[in-house]
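Thread: "does anyone have the structure for this chain?"

Original post by V.I.:
We have the sequence but no experimental structure in hand. Need at least a predicted one for the grant figures.
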Amino acid sequence: MVTLDVCFYDVFDLHPMNEYELYIRNFGSSNAVQAATQSNEDRTDQDMQTDVWPTDVKWVQCPPDQFTDSGSGNPLTHSTGHLRSNSKILDVVAKVDSVRLSNFLQRSSQVMDILLEESTAAMGISSGFAEQSSLNISQGVTTLQQQKNLSGRQIRDVCYSTTDYRLLLVAYSMASGEQEKDILGDKGILCLWQLSDPTVPYRVLVCEGDPTCCCFAPTKPYLVFAGTGDGSVLAWNLQESPSLHRKVIIDGQEILLRYPSYSTSGIYTLKGTHDEPIRNIMALHQYRPAREDNWHAALGVSSELEGQSFQVASLDESGWMHIWAVVELRSESITASELDFGMAIGGRLKLIRSTGFKISLPRSQTRSAVTDLRVLDCKFRTNDIDRFIVGTDIGTIIHESRFRNRCNPRTYNLKETTIAQIDGVSSLDFCPHDPRLFLAGYTSGMVGMFAANEATAIMRWTVSKGPVRLVRWSPHRPAVFYVLDETGTLHVWDLSESEAQATQVVKATKTGDNGRIVTFALSPTIVSAASTVSHANLAAASGRNATIMLGYADGTMEVHLLDSTLAERAIDEEHVLASYVGGTRVSQNAGKEDEEMYENDHDSVYDA
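Reply from O.Q.:
Generated one for you, tokens below.
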């Protein structure tokens, strides 16, 4: 049997209350008020399982002080001997504003960079042309060293900065052949060169498309614009922080690749974008002459800029021209442009499309056979942001106005009766010394000189059997212009010596192993207040160091110092151009001889 045992436990034990405790329980809290409650909120430390990382303050000093250039701790709070002043220890706690320090270093580094470059350049570039040239138009040559990442690329366009003749911009196509597999093989490249250092590019600009044309800003040399084959308009701000861009290592060398600060590529919500390859991109700005009755002053070094604002015009093959306003945003204005998908992250440059229109022939001159008009080149008049001319693939030059004013004459033609039905205008250029004259190069090998008030050419020459690639008027001599044909031959005309034929010819066989010349550019003489060096010194140096930049088929770039005969103007050279303006120097052999030249397939050179 199971027997249960009995156990006793005291669960609650309360001692009997005395009289005082009984009184307090009944009457002690009748007149009591709760004044405060205390908890453990004043405890500031908390327990955690994460270990505290040991930290130390490091400092560096350049140049070193007493053979010490680095150390630990705050030197301003240490009682070191070299920090004593009048036996008093500098007990000052250094306060550093990292944001202001970063802004200061970013701006000051750019200033120091420019000062160092100017110091090395020393205002003269003649020492860089020590290498002798075999070309008869050159006193010396310097070659821009070919980079490995530029091999397999063709030169699309070249230009000088309008504010500094020592800055060159070269646009390269996408890589072809084996170079397509490189890290930059599927991207277009634009290189900014300095004549003071032809060994490496000063800046390397990268874009997704194939660049077709490029230009500098007229008043701000740190802004660069380009057009691509897919119709995109690109803009770079060279003053942006390098931290916003990408760095790559090619052949052990670190290269900073600057992507566009603004791009219209892929912005399908933007109305009025280009759908065809861009033929020309031009920065529009007007110079104010010192005397309004002397238009030569508008092109001299004494000219003043009419404000700092400017616009950019882009023209594609189909004839659509768009005008873009260039806006540089401040830091407080960036939030207003968050919805603009064309701006790069951290960028402050913005393009705003102001207007757009399509170039077309006048109704009275429209040919029934012409169904699709193609544009080959475009040029604005010198020191004019309104009037411009457009070269087409049917041989007609269209005179247009940006503000839609009436233009007279409406079109320009090589002759009154066009014999060749298809003769495209491949290149145009206004005279920088007299805006009433301009040159036109044709795909038939002809070159015509036009007066702005005459519908037909006042002078005509047959330069080559092949197409004319480029015509440029010399900014250094009013009577000299240059013509480049398809074979790579460069023809130099001096109207003060001969009107019948070129005075100097640079044939493709003289250019060596680089291949034929595919493009060229002439150094400017216009010097604006936006230059980073002395206005007067740079103006004088640009006159002494007239250069021509030649681009070859293999991608090589050469900068030649022009011969004194092509760089120094004669005393009465302006009178040579004045005789052409009124149409008094019209060719006497315009007519049957021109027809015979076309029929003989340009076998004879036209005697003007």
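V.I.: this helps a lot. The first helix runs from residue 19 to 27.
O.Q.: and Confidence is low (pLDDT under 50) at residues 79-93, 290-307, 527-540, 586-608.
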